């Protein structure tokens, strides 16, 4: 099984890599590639990993199979108990406690690896506790099913609870997938909310003209200046980017190779940006930046030992060296680069600089639609930029998180497929083991529809067991990760997307229904006479 599964997985993985490349391009991530590249040792590594995992996974069941008493093996039914629950609870709680210690440590500036170990400990503890909590949770979740579906619902509820170990194992893939999706959804919602709040507070204008220049070209400064003169425009300012080298003459121990690497500097017009867009100045006055001034990210300045008044050198692309001075520090929340300079620093450069964003504020009493039309006429004539309202621009900045989230959802979708397969296999085994039981029920009057309904609702209860537990665990993980980021200085507040969380549970419900289709059909095809025969 390990060899065959590894070979099939290797082939499918190649196909998925191509599909992933297409999805990345569709979401705006252009991955440079010369074509499909497969390393010579990839197949060997896949076989080693697949066979090792398969053999390891079979070790414990093989030991247990060898311990089955002969008389128990001759029975027509099978019953798998949860074993020593006390020992299981102790081990599970110990693992969770160790995981919580790691999470708390991660929230107090411990290395990021500690956060990963903490999450692993909590997940492992929950999985070990699974058989101990699956029976009461399954009975609770199955109570509405029993009330709505009568005898079929009551039997489905009892079937899901009668073998807690198997139920918890079946629900485990759903639990893991839902927990990760919930945690990432909460994290993405928190980041989006933070971006909206930050840019909403920083941007006091009405329109934004943006261009995706990929570091080349952009909005000419003349267009920015032309927008400023439009009727109905009170203020307009541009923000651009260019590459330079920042050299600290006083740092004699600096790595020459590092000094040769380029740095992005954000270019602004200090006379027009104030009052329109706040770039997060924490120290210094932006009006003092001048031609030879720099504003530097505060964290970077602390790391390099710089402060206001520190002398630096800016080496432009054309080779010109400008003796500069740190005139202020930035928080880094709304500045798009570690360095900010006036566009006057590049006024005499042979290569022109461009703006990537132009923020525009309409005059008081002006008709916004008319102002927008005038700006659009200029940008359309120049064939550049995308004109957006303030709300559209903020939403667009926040939506950048969705691209990464979409990629993560695609990868986690594979775990959902694994969960479906796991539920199908477990239900098929359950139907086979309960063949005699199903035959007896059919003999005393149970209809095919009731058999299908019983199997279907058993699958739904199992899926909801994993989903509910996964949602709770995912929310806890989301809170911890957001708290860790907040303590590291990112200032993110936790936000729970209620609608998205509800959708996760609803999808899990339909997941159970879909997974039960084939096992339910198999259950209705049980031959009643053969099933109850004792010969």
Describe this structure in words.
The protein has helices at 2-26, 42-66, 70-73, 85-106, 112-162, 164-202, 221-228, 256-260, 270-273, 298-304, 368-382, 390-398, 400-433, 435-443, 448-490, 498-515, 517-524, 528-532; strands at residues 207-210, 219-220, 233-247, 263-268, 281-283, 293-297, 311-315, 321-330, 339-342, 354-362, 386-389. It is α+β, with helices and mostly antiparallel strands and 535 residues long. A six-stranded mixed barrel has the order 3-4-9-6-8-7. The longest helix is centred in the N-terminal third of the chain and has 51 residues, at 112-162. The relative contact order is 0.13. The mean pLDDT is 82.
Strand arrangement across the biggest beta sheet: 3-4-9-6-8-7
* Number of distinct helices: 18
Q: How big a fraction of the residues is strand?
A: 5-15%
User: What would the average pLDDT be, to the nearest integer?
Assistant: 82
* Main β-sheet description: 6 strands, mixed, barrel
Poorly predicted ranges: none
Instruction: Give the N-terminus to C-terminus distance in angstroms.
Output: 34 Å
Q: Write down the Rg.
A: 31 Å
In total, the number of strands is 11
Order of helices and strands: HHHHHHEEHEHEHEEHEEEEHEHHHHHHH
The chain-level structural class is alpha+beta
The shape is elongated
- Percent helix among the residues? 55-70%
């Amino acid at each position: 099984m390990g060899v065959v599964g590894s070979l099939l997985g290797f082939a499918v993985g190649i196909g998925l890599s191509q599909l992933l490349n297409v999805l990345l391009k569709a979401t705006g991530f252009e991955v440079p590639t010369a074509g499909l590249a497969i390393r010579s040792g990839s197949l060997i590594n896949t076989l080693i990993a697949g066979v090792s995992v398969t053999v390891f996974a079979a070790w414990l069941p093989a030991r247990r199979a060898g311990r089955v008493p002969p008389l128990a093996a001759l029975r027509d039914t099978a019953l798998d108990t949860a074993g020593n629950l006390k020992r299981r609870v102790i081990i599970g709680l110990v693992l969770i406690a160790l995981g919580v210690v790691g999470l708390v440590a991660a929230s107090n500036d411990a290395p990021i690896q500690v956060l990963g170990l903490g999450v692993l400990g909590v997940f492992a503890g929950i999985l070990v506790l699974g058989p101990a909590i699956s029976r009461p949770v399954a009975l609770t979740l199955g109570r509405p099913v029993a009330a709505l579906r009568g005898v079929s619902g009551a039997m489905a509820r009892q079937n899901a609870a009668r073998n807690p170990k198997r139920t918890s194992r079946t629900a485990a893939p759903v639990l893991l997938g839902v927990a990760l999706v919930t945690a990432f959804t909460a994290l993405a919602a928190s980041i989006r909310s933070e971006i909206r709040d930050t840019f909403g507070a920083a941007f006091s204008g009405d329109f934004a003209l943006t261009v995706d220049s990929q570091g080349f070209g952009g909005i000419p400064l003349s267009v920015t200046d032309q927008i400023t003169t439009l009727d109905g425009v009170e203020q307009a300012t541009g923000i651009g980017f260019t590459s330079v080298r920042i050299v600290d003459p006083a740092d004699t121990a600096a790595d020459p190779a590092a000094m040769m690497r380029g740095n992005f500097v954000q270019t602004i017009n200090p006379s027009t940006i104030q009052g329109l867009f706040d770039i997060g100045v924490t120290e210094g006055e932006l009006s003092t930046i001048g031609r030879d001034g720099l504003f530097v990210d505060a964290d970077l300045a602390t790391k390099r030992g710089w402060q206001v008044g520190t002398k630096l050198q800016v080496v432009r692309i054309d080779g010109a060296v400008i003796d500069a001075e740190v005139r202020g520090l930035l928080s880094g929340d709304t500045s798009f680069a570690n360095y900010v300079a006036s566009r006057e620093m590049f006024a005499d450069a042979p290569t022109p600089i461009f703006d990537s964003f132009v923020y525009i504020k309409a005059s008081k009493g002006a008709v916004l639609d008319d102002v927008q039309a005038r700006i659009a006429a200029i940008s359309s004539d120049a064939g550049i930029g995308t004109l957006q309202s303030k709300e559209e621009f903020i939403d667009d900045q926040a939506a950048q998180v969705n691209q990464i989230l979409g990629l993560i959802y695609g990868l986690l979708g594979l775990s959902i497929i694994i969960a479906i397969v796991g539920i199908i296999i477990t239900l098929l085994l359950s139907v086979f083991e309960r063949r005699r039981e199903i035959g007896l029920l059919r003999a005393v009057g149970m209809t095919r529809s009731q058999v299908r309904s019983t199997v279907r609702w058993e699958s739904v209860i199992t899926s909801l067991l994993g989903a509910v537990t996964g949602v709770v665990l995912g929310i806890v993980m989301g809170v911890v990760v957001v708290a860790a980021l907040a303590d590291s200085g990112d200032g993110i507040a936790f936000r729970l997307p209620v609608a998205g969380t509800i959708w996760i549970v609803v999808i899990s419900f339909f997941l159970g229904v879909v997974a039960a289709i084939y096992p339910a059909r198999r259950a209705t095809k049980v031959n009643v006479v053969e099933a109850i025969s004792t010969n």
